[in-house]
From TrEMBL:
The keyword Membrane applies. Residues 1-22 form the signal peptide. It is found in: Cell outer membrane. GO terms for molecular function: efflux transmembrane transporter activity; porin activity. It comes from Paucidesulfovibrio gracilis DSM 16080. Residues 192-219 form a coiled coil. Transmembrane segments: none annotated. This is Outer membrane protein TolC.
Length: 449
């Protein structure tokens, strides 16, 4: 009976351990499985982890703290003092205290009208914070464009590899046929050498295409802040997704959403605040002051208090002060104001240039989309025609009525037309990405309207 119980317990223990081992194995498999990223996931990962974006967010947080610090300049400031003084002789009157004097002083100062400079400085800080936020968005758009371009380049590279592999297979097959004909004396040695040369060139192009894929994968890993050796699977395909948008609509969206335009607008507003700050030097500065004083012969300020007059031992004062300063007879303030005014005009002109450049970028992207779409249509026909020409050339060669040169030329035309189609597909989606970036819109997955 005890033996049977022991056996059951041992069996249960083995089952439990087996379950634990299975869970550990599943966990290890999950960890070793490659991470899968499509274009949208790549963009989202980049926006979350790219060091440049992390730095831009930190800059925005710093701008927020700077704005808060500027605001505190408009609040009351407090200064406190506590000290000890020893006189070289006894005072002449008893009410003047003794030779050893302890004193406490507190001052509260509130700017009432500091030449409107503090208010403008605070408003300038808020504008700078908004400008930094727009700069963060601009950095995010730049990163999105770089990730999408690299991702599309990777997909293009993979299609290039597939085309190069097909080309190598076709040339290998042709070399085998040519060699067989040469062995039986039906074709000259020159045909074999020519087929071998074309095959070697195709194999070199295949090596280059594979290297471009590996390079773009490494570039994506870098943009996504992933280790270069990380096991990542990037998935997607080049396609001709439908898209229809008029220039007027695209321009309207660009002018309202582009962060660089907002940055320019904030720069103009900041320059105007700088002008106001410079002009405030022509106005007086008014401050309210409150002071409290207390003296005594001991550290507690209470010892021998009777030896002091009431007004001499403890009192407070309050008042309003106005100050007005003119540097070089006012010439400095005038020159500073004129300089600030010219700076406003300069930044406004730069903003107009930004808007003109935005319009150009939008129109250029739209034209590139139309061009790439037309090239795709032509390239599809070119691939079909080249494929058929290669089939016919190969059939004529096998029937002994065509030449090896005709076959190799037809094969080269197939590879060339496939490369043109792949390039057109990549250019089409790249132009889409460029257009959305030019409109100031984040479109991680390039979802078209």
């Amino acid at each position: 009976m005890h033996i049977r119980t022991l056996a059951v317990s041992l069996a249960l223990l083995l089952v439990s351990c087996g379950g634990v081992w299975a869970q550990q194995s599943d966990a290890e498999s999950a960890q070793s499985a490659p991470r899968v990223f499509d274009m949208k996931a790549c963009v989202e990962r980049g926006l979350e982890a790219n060091p440049a974006i992390v730095a831009a967010r930190a800059q925005l947080s710093g701008a927020e703290y700077e704005t808060g610090s500027t605001f505190t300049d408009m609040l009351p400031s407090t200064t406190m003092g506590y000290g000890y003084t020893h006189k070289d002789r006894e005072p002449a009157t008893a009410t003047s205290g003794r030779r050893d004097v302890w004193a406490f002083h507190i001052n509260v100062s509130q700017p009432l009208f500091p030449g409107i400079s503090l208010l403008n400085a605070f408003q300038k800080g808020m504008l700078q914070e908004e400008q930094t936020e727009a700069k963060l968005e601009q950095a995010e758009l730049t990163l999105i464009g770089e990730i999408q371009t690299t991702f599309l380049g990777l997909l293009q590279g993979r299609m290039d590899v597939k085309s190069a592999e097909d080309s190598v297979e076709r040339l290998k097959s042709q070399l085998e046929v040519t060699t067989a004909y040469y062995d039986v004396g039906l074709k000259p040695r020159l045909d074999v050498l020519q087929a071998e040369t074309d095959l070697a060139s195709a194999e070199q192009e295949l090596v280059k295409a594979r290297n471009r894929v590996a390079t773009r994968e490494a570039k994506l890993n870098t943009l996504l802040n992933l280790p270069l050796e990380a096991d990542v699977e990037y998935v997607g395909e080049l396609d001709e997704r439908p898209f229809a948008m008029e220039l007027k609509q695209a321009l309207t969206r660009a002018y309202s959403k582009r962060p660089d335009i907002r940055i320019g607008e904030k720069s103009v507003a900041i320059a105007r605040k700088d002008f106001n700050i410079a002009a405030s030097d022509f106005l007086p500065s008014v401050d309210a002051e409150w002071d409290y004083y207390k003296k005594g012969n001991g550290m507690d300020l209470e010892e021998n208090a009777a030896q002091w007059s009431h007004s001499g031992q403890e009192y407070w004062t309050a008042g309003v002060n106005m100050s007005y300063s003119l540097g070089a007879g006012g010439a400095t303030q005038v020159l500073d104001a004129l300089k600030a005014d010219e700076n406003v005009a300069q930044i406004m002109a730069e903003l107009e240039k930004v808007k003109l450049d935005a319009g150009y970028e939008v129109k250029e992207a739209l034209l590139n989309i139309v061009e790439a779409r037309d090239r795709i249509e032509v390239a599809h026909k070119s691939v079909a025609a080249a494929t058929e020409s290669y089939r016919m050339a190969l059939a004529r060669y096998q029937a002994q009525v065509g030449t090896n040169t005709d076959v190799l030329d037809a094969q080269a035309n197939v590879s060339s037309s496939e490369a043109e189609l792949i390039q057109a597909l990549a250019d089409y989606q790249t132009a889409l990405s460029t257009l959305y970036i030019a409109m100031g819109e984040k479109n991680p997955g390039l979802v078209t309207e």
